[in-house]
Amino acid sequence: MNARAAEGRTPLLGPRAGGTLADAFRDAARGWTTGVAVVTARHGDEVFAKTVSSLCTLSLDPLLVSVAVSARSPLAGAVRADGRYAVSVLAGHQEPLARHFAAPGAGRALTAFTVAPTRTEATGAPVLEDCLAWFDCRLHTVLPGGDHAVLVGRVTAADAGPGDPLVYHRGGYRALAPPPLPSREP
Ligand SMILES: Cc1cc2nc3c(=O)[nH]c(=O)nc-3n(C[C@H](O)[C@H](O)[C@H](O)COP(=O)(O)O)c2cc1C
Q: How many structural domains comprise the chain?
């Protein structure tokens, strides 16, 4: 699909003629394949969670990760207030969790999530059980990012286990295809 657009220059050539730059932005963004993670935090008696695809392993020295979360979300408020959070990278079998924590309002509960057991590691933030990998963070900086807040976290503990990731592409969840068989020399 031709989804080219430039600010102040619509309509466009091709099937997307008449589309806005924001439409083209969304189409382009759907072509970016990511893993899927859940950001979790605790504040007072409440726990918070949000499905994200914006995880970035930002820096090795110091050890930093970032996630961009909607600036007005309850989770962003909890992280700002508490200063600790975790990012759990979902495995292929955890699509139901990704869907659950992407539903508006579903990522907020008293004391604990009924759909997902958690544990604590270094900071005391909830970490989802049975994930492919996790990062436990202390909030380092919050950067402005338009309607999102970029949470930069200093990693205080992290680990990974075996398994395949949950993948997100063009608005749908996918699994990794097995690697192609090595070609045989004639
Ligand atoms: C695969 C996937 C990735 C997402 N990535 C992000 C993200 O990086 N940042 C974000 O703020 N929202 C992201 N969302 C949307 C949030 O998960 C969703 O809007 C939010 O959890 C709704 O809950 P709330 O209204 O209680 O905040 C993503 C959703 C899906 C399905």
A: 1
